[in-house]
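__Protein archive entry__

___
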Amino acid sequence: MDFLWESFTELTWQQVAMWLIGALLIFLAIKKEMEPALLLPMGFGAILVNLPSSGAINQEVAGIGAVAGIIDWLFEIGIEASEALPLLLFIGIGAMIDFGPLLSNPKLLFFGGAAQFGIFLTIVLAGLFGFDLKDAASIGIIGAADGPTSLLVSQVLKSNYIGAIAVAAYSYMALVPIIQPVAIKLVTTKKERAIKMEYKPESVSKLTKILFPIIVTIIAGMIAPSSISLVGFLMFGNLIRECGVLDNLSETAQKVLANLVTLLLGITIAASMKAENFIQWNTILIMLLGLMAFIFDTIGGVVFAKVINLFSKKKMNPMIGAAGISAFPMSARVIQKMGLEADPSNHLLMHAVGANVSGQVASVIAGGVILQLIPAML
């Protein structure tokens, strides 16, 4: 009983607040089905690491000394020391992606680049709010709507707010169906959203699909060597998919590997969600700046498409530009749904998928560019 009383006396209101945040993440995962494979372990992990004298984190035990906690150990080995967990997840993501729609319409590559506008604008804004350069860059990458990239960049740059950045990035990924329609409607009319685009699937050869990940890796490595782990693992996963001789491994990467790493990554992130580091005003500011980055990326892609339409006889639906963010395939589904709402005969899915996969590539390249530039500026 004395030990139980001692635990209660050690409990702080900040830890209780983190229990509530963890419960909210679990609620969103189960009740709202928002990225449950990530939000549920993150929420449960937030509770685990914020229990008084939690054995899940590193601690000093009287008479024994330093004792390693499993969550801190996973964080140190899988994220801090090697960034292994987010990189392994990229193999699974790469194995899931079919670049066929993009390769049949290569100009969609530009939309992936345009939809990264919010990243760099938010870096500037975060700097104006007093964040140092490494923290500002880590906050800006939230706009890529790519959780693993956000986590990896913030870890490599040794940001002081890894937990808040991870929660923001993954939460906004889950909220794509809510956030993107609002942002798109701010800069489009119903008439623009109803623009139809004819889809003529062109046959993409197997050789082209095999060469694409290899060529992208080489180009990215030459332009931004720091991006090679990000781009390389993503493209390696895609090469496993497209080579045609590793079907079993491709299926394993898409399902078993991706699911297992996602679960481990989710609960491991909780190591950076300890109350003393997470409960502060800057966490709220990071969440707001991350939301701005996400919205600006969406708007940037839409505006780019509208500019292209000024010089094109054959108009494209500007919503396609919004799919240039990295949230694959959620963003493409949002565009398809909004197209059908504007005109029930308007099918934009394949165009949106092409822009969406280009956004996946662009986001990891953007992360690599940041890792290339920021250390040189510090």
